[in-house]
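Deliverable D4.2, example record:
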Amino acid sequence: MDLFADDAEVSDPPAQLWNEDESIIVRGKNRIREYFEWIHERFPSTQLVPFNEVVEGEWGVVEWTTRGMYGIEFNGVDVIHVVDGKIVENRVYFDLKEAMRKE
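Output generated by the structure prediction step:
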């Protein structure tokens, strides 16, 4: 969590299930920590494997594959904004239908 600014924001579709207001945005380093703990408690054997990274100035893009629990595997992308060495914004994109599909 040291990489996140105190007032960072994470935009992640599963956050709708966690946030009381059903927002996809989690604000603040402590809330982000709680959200990540919630995700890991529900999907403990899931691995996120990055396979492509691009950085330009304060912006970075990471393509990844998630593998793990229930045999689910899907790809996604994080768009990350870094200011003064800290993540201030992290937007997560993936196809929810692909993520929910079981083979």
